[in-house]
Structure formats: structure tokens, C-alpha cells
Write a structure and sequence with these properties.
30% of the residues lie in helices and 26% in strands. By secondary structure, the chain is of the alpha+beta class. The chain has a four-stranded antiparallel beta sheet with strand order 1-2-3-4, with no helix packed on it.
């Protein structure tokens, strides 16, 4: 059983004191005000043969009406609920519930209609506005395993504790955004004591863990038999920072680029909802990382941080670091649509260190694959001259065919 809690903004459903009751076979939603009434009833439609181990498993959780982060402030405070009905920024109260491995979303709202009311004393007929609760089945999808407990992390993400893992789902896309292996039998079960007299089997008792899972302000609280675990989802910045702290700047740039392109795995917590604002924020971070990576790769500090040492004292060939730096920054600049850093700062760093051939060899790949056609004339000259000096006129000619003629030195090409 779970009552619909009050949200941060008023909602018409607050006046009904809505409560949901869920068993392994039926969902019932009642309103306690103005008079007790059953507003919604749904029976589980699976056959016993299809239920399997999830036959007796059910879980539910409400999410109230709130204003999502970044949305405009509510039109009125809770002391004046009437204007809030016009406030489109607030979310609609929603119930997530599960039977077995199947999860469902149920929206609840109020619908007002005009009804005729006849006075028993005077016989006068008047039109009265009457409200009633309406429910909308919003979505349905299956988890990877039987769901033992459900909690809302925020207005867009659900935490599901299954028989084998902790899973986080995006309620808009129903996509699994996080999956961590977890054994729910380690959580405290209020039914474990009833296994002594045979009222519950041990497997059923250890699955009764819904009361040991809670969320609050994005944090996850798990009550174990001898410990309390607290965790939270890593934001996009946390993931990038983990690579930076370990010195893996190139992986940090690649991950940032995937956030910029919208292909990053996992959740996108901490990022703006607006696509243009997201690209602005992530793009700035990607530029900062490219600058920091270049400074680190060519700094004297790197010679003393142990990354070039081996047990035998012979040292490590760091050629791959400089090769991958060019490729990683090239992919990032192409994604940004801005090659200035690639052609100016990065090339100058390689040229000053007298390893420009490493840069040119790596950059050539992007030219031949048609990723970059408008090449800085200075770099085009150096690339063609490199192949000419190495006695490879065929490679020089191939590069010429792939570069915009406006970027070529005609005298050098002839």
C-alpha cells in the first residue's frame, strides 16, 4: 500500500487523498476524500503458468507533482492551488508498479464535468462542476529479471531492484540506462522470521525486500542485514573526471565527444535538457580537455609522474600517446565543426617538439577518409613535402586528390 505524497507544487489530485493497494493479483486505487471511493481497479492478466517465479512478486511507487529542474517556477504557492492548474511546467502524478518482471506506468489526473443537480427541497435544477479521477496507462515494458522493489530516483528515472541487479530505467524511452549486478538476498527482509514456522519459504522471504530500498534526492539507500549502503548515479562530469584523475585524458575526450553526439552509454544526469544548451556545455568541456591533454603530453611533469618508467629502467615508448592524441583531437574537432585547435595549437606543439611527422601521419588518415577536406595550407604543404622527402610520390599524389584545391600550393603540387 502506498499513498500519493504531496509534491512540491499543488495538483488537483491532492484533494482526493489517493492511495494505491497492490497485491500479486490486483491493483486497486482508492480516494479517501471527500468520501472513500474506489477509483481504479485492475486485475493481473497473466496466467499462473506464465508467471513462473514472479507469481507472488509485486511492487509499486508514486511520484508526485513537481516542477522539473530548469523549468519555470510554479504559478502559485500551495496555499493557492487554483492557478497551479494552468501551470504546464508541473509534472502529472504517476504510479509505477510491477508484477513479476513487467513494469507499468499509470498517470492520474482530475477531470471536471458539469452535472445537473436537483434540489430535493425546492426542486430547482442547477449545473454543478463535479470532479473525478481519470487514469491513463502510459507505458509498459519488461525488466531483465523479476522485480523485487521499485523507487523513483527523479521525475525521469526509476530504480528497480531485480533478482540479480540494480537497474535504472528512463521512463520516457523505457530504456535501461544503468545496470549493476546486485544480490537482493543481502537486504533485510521483514518476513525472514516467519520461515521458522513455515509461513514463508526461505526464497520468498529473502525476496521481500521492498521496505529495505529507499531513494531521497537522487541517492539510493539499501538496508542490509548488517550494514546500510548509500549510493548515487554518476553524472556525466563524474565519469569524465574518473578518466582525468587516472591520467587517461584521451578516454575523457572520447567520452565527452560521445555525450556531445548523444551516443554516450548510461545516464545523462547533470546535462541540460535543451539540445543546443547541451552541446554548448559539453563542447566547452571538450575544448578544455583537448588543451589540458596537449599541455600534459608535452609537459616536463609527465617525465616525472612515472608513466614512462618500467621495472627494468629501460623506459616506455610513448609514441602511441602522441599518435592517439592527434586522432582523438581530430575526431573531437570534427564533431565540434571547428578545426582551429587541430590546425593551430596542436600542430604547433608537435612542430615545436620536432615530431611533426607523427602529427602528419595521423592526420593524413582523416584526409583520405574524407573527414577533413579543407586543410590548413601550411599543413597541406608539410604533408605533401613529407611524402616527397620520403620518396613516396604516390602517397603525395593521393593526398593531393583528397584536399580541396583552394588549400594547395600550386607550385608545390606541380
Amino acid at each position: 500500500m502506498a499513498p500519493l505524497p504531496l509534491g512540491t507544487v499543488p495538483h488537483p489530485t491532492d484533494a482526493y487523498n489517493v492511495t494505491a493497494l497492490l497485491t500479486a493479483a490486483k491493483l486497486v486505487i482508492v480516494g479517501l476524500k471527500p468520501t472513500p471511493k474506489t477509483w481504479y481497479r485492475r486485475h493481473r492478466d497473466e496466467d499462473d503458468e506464465q508467471m513462473g517465479k514472479g507469481k507472488f512478486r509485486a511492487a509499486l511507487a508514486w511520484f508526485p507533482s513537481v516542477v522539473p529542474p530548469g523549468a519555470p517556477p510554479p504559478a502559485a504557492a500551495r496555499t493557492n492551488p487554483a492557478p497551479a492548474k494552468k501551470d504546464g511546467a508541473a509534472t502529472t502524478p504517476v504510479l509505477v508498479y510491477s508484477w513479476g518482471s513487467t513494469l507499468r506506468l499509470l498517470l492520474v489526473s482530475e477531470l471536471k464535468t458539469l452535472e445537473k443537480f436537483t434540489s430535493q427541497r425546492t426542486g430547482k435544477v442547477t449545473m454543478v462542476e463535479v470532479g473525478r479521477l481519470v487514469f491513463e496507462e502510459k507505458a509498459r515494458w519488461n525488466a531483465r529479471d523479476i522485480v523485487h522493489a521499485i523507487q523513483w530516483l527523479n521525475a525521469k528515472q526509476i530504480l528497480a531492484v531485480t533478482a540479480s541487479a540494480l537497474e535504472v530505467y528512463d521512463v520516457q524511452t523505457r530504456a535501461l540506462v544503468e545496470h549493476v549486478h546486485f544480490d537482493p538476498t543481502l537486504l533485510l527482509s521483514p518476513s525472514i522470521g516467519h520461515t521458522i514456522n513455515g509461513a514463508f519459504s526461505y526464497s520468498d522471504a529473502t525476496s521481500d525486500v521492498a521496505h529495505s530500498v529507499r531513494t531521497y534526492k537522487g541517492k539510493i539507500f539499501l538496508l542490509g542485514r548488517d550494514e546500510l549502503q548509500v549510493g548515487t548515479l554518476l553524472t556525466w562530469a563524474d565519469r569524465i573526471l574518473s578518466f582525468v584523475e587516472s591520467g587517461d585524458f584521451l578516454s575523457a575526450i572520447d567520452l565527452t565527444r560521445s555525450y556531445y553526439l548523444g551516443t554516450a552509454p548510461g545516464n545523462k544526469n547533470g546535462l541540460p535538457e535543451d539540445p543546443l544548451e547541451l552541446r554548448k556545455v559539453v563542447g566547452e568541456k571538450m575544448r578544455e580537455l583537448m588543451v589540458a591533454s596537449t599541455r600534459y603530453a608535452f609537459s616536463e611533469d609527465r617525465m616525472t609522474d612515472g608513466t614512462h618508467l618500467t621495472p627494468d629502467g629501460r623506459g616506455v615508448d610513448r609514441t602511441s600517446l602522441f599518435e592517439n592524441l592527434v586522432a582523438t583531437c581530430a575526431r573531437a574537432c570534427i564533431a565540434l565543426g571547428d578545426l582551429e585547435f587541430l590546425f593551430e595549437d596542436l600542430f604547433q606543439a608537435y612542430d615545436d617538439a620536432s615530431i611533426a611527422p607523427i602529427y602528419l601521419e595521423q592526420f593524413e588518415t582523416f584526409v583520405l577518409e574524407h573527414d577533413v577536406r579543407a586543410v590548413d595550407p601550411r599543413i597541406a604543404q608539410r604533408l605533401i613535402a613529407l611524402h616527397s622527402a620520403n620518396g613516396s610520390p604516390g602517397r603525395a599524389e593521393r593526398v593531393i586528390w583528397h584536399i580541396d584545391p583552394a588549400c594547395l600550393d600550386i607550385d608545390q603540387v606541380v
